[in-house]
Amino acid sequence: MAAAATQQSRSIWRALDLLGDWATLLILESYWLGARRFGHIERLTGLPKTVLSSRLKILLGAELLRQREYSCRPPRSEYRGTRKLMDLFPAALAMYQWEERWGRKDSKFVITLKHRACGDSMAPIAVCGRCREELDPRACAWKAGPGAEFMQSGYARRRRRRAETTVRSGLLDTCFQVIGDRWSGLVLHSVFSGMNRYDELLSATHAASNILSDRLKWLCQSKILCRQAYQRAPARYAYRLTARGRDLYPILVALLAWGNRWYPVAQGAPIQLSHQSCNQPLELAFVCSACRQPLELGAIDATITTAPAAKLTGDANHFRQLHNS
Ligand SMILES: [Zn+2]
Ligand SMILES: [Zn+2]
Q: Is the predicted pLDDT of residue 108 greater than 80, yes or no?
């Protein structure tokens, strides 16, 4: 695993550089909740105007959103998701699946998904697209692909805002705390790639040691990772995934696939994942928990309600709108 320790995937890096940001994820969540206009996004996210404006600019620049004029006098425009945003559908399903299993149960919102083909309410289940076995990272292998390259840390330092996590309670809160911090995302990506020791993680993530220590401590406190001593004097630890942590795997696979599609490396995919149960390259897919049929974009009706039962927005057709827009 020594070679792996010095190689990183540019695509996951780019994906997390853009999406590994709490405020950005809140904006995307509000989009999934049906918000299209600045004021509506502001109300749903609770973000200060300046933060919201800067993140919307980033999302426009990255071509996840585009502006569409809905009135010319006075000129007013709203935000629309692009194909690149729609392509985050598997990542959104993966986040939803994780939050259902492991997230806080006191969320302000309740989301109910209905599979249009079978008519049942259901949860998405991440599976191998080839053999349909439920995804378990322990049955998946990782190897560096032709496009793997040595990565230099290129992050602008943005501070984690832990205080924000207590400010609001939305749909995907817990999940956002983990993925919405790019360093935590990179640490997890490295652990999933088979790196477990502090030094390996340090060189794989290119994080400063205080940042890495901080994230490891936080990931252990959040019961995503656990620490096992492998040497007594001096004390040395290996970091292992808990069941809760292992379940984040589909999210990272979805983000990796998204990064590969939208930020391709000329030489080929930087990371090759394979499913050992069927011995095929890993392709993430989702099936309906009720009928076990594959879930495609546009196959799900989402109803979002605030707790207790008052409707928040008319977003039942949101995934369909995404599909048709
Ligand atoms: Zn398989
Ligand atoms: Zn179904």
A: no
